[in-house]
Design goal:
Layout: E1 8-15, H1 21-27, E2 33-40, H2 50-72, E3 78-81, H3 91-106, E4 110-111, H4 113-123, E5 128-133, H5 137-149, E6 153-159, H6 165-168, H7 173-183, E7 190-193, H8 203-211, E8 215-217, H9 218-229, H10 241-245
Parallel strand pairs: 1-2, 1-3, 3-4, 5-6, 5-7, 7-8
């Protein structure tokens, strides 16, 4: 039994440009659980168009399996994916195929952002949703398709079109607050934030309070999904109702 990870030894991964997932996951880590991070090597190329965003996704997909192989050497017990765009691609059926590929390569069970946020929305019994991302329209189209395939009605969505992978992590709470104002309305049950390099785990909890509805940050949902999948039911404060009540 691992001396520190005596309850669970998580493997986690994200793009090498991502500076948010690792600290976010560590902040939500209960005692007896350890996170072991592997970086998917990609360049920090500028992203100003749909085509350049598609190139970014291709770069991530091309190196993800290598990052998984690195984690296998520490004998992880479960894989928590800290990258999200690829997990929404080609609708729910395409996302299932991708998840099964990851399970096969990792040789353990896997939590990823697309299915984790779906599970969170179902916990809240949400039907009509809005979402936002740091992505470009080509990726928002894929996210919308996934949620619609899952049976949700996507009323509105916004893409912030951040200019590089690293710049996603520079997105401010004020930007997120203004985006939530544009998305909110009496016609939606919940708001979802996707894009794992955008820090929302604490601000989403605050937004739930003043909006009076679920605001689901993808990093919160993914780590919550992994904890509950392995039977760890600790309730954690400061990250919203998902982790404190469910």
């Amino acid at each position: 039994m691992d001396h520190l990870g005596y309850r669970m030894k998580f493997g986690t991964l994200g793009p090498s440009t991502n500076t948010i997932v690792q600290p976010d996951f560590d902040d939500m880590r209960p005692v007896g659980v350890t996170n072991h991070y592997s970086r998917i090597i990609i360049p920090n190329d500028p992203v100003n168009t749909n085509e350049e965003f598609l190139k970014l996704v291709k770069n991530i997909q091309g190196n993800t399996l290598q990052a998984v192989d690195v984690l296998k050497s520490c004998e992880m017990q479960y894989l928590v994916m800290g990258m999200s765009a690829a997990t929404f691609w080609d609708g729910r059926k395409g996302a299932e195929t991708y998840l099964n590929m990851m399970r096969e390569r990792a040789e353990v069970e896997v939590s990823c952002g697309s299915f984790a946020t779906e599970a969170a929305l179902n916990v809240y019994k949400a039907k009509r949703i809005a979402f936002f991302s740091p992505y470009f329209p080509v990726a928002n189209d894929q996210v919308r398709r996934f949620y619609q395939d899952c049976g949700f009605t996507v009323v509105r969505d916004i893409c912030l079109q951040r200019p590089s992978p690293v710049q996603i992590a520079h997105t401010t709470d004020a930007m997120c607050r203004d985006t939530l104002k544009q998305l909110d309305g009496d016609d939606i049950d919940a708001i979802v934030q996707v894009g794992t390099n955008l820090s929302m785990v604490r601000f989403a909890a605050t937004a739930e309070f003043y909006l009076g509805k679920p605001v689901i940050a993808i990093n919160t949902a993914t780590y919550w999904h992994a904890l509950r999948a392995v039977g760890i039911n600790d309730k954690l404060q400061g990250f919203g109702k998902l982790l404190s009540h469910y």
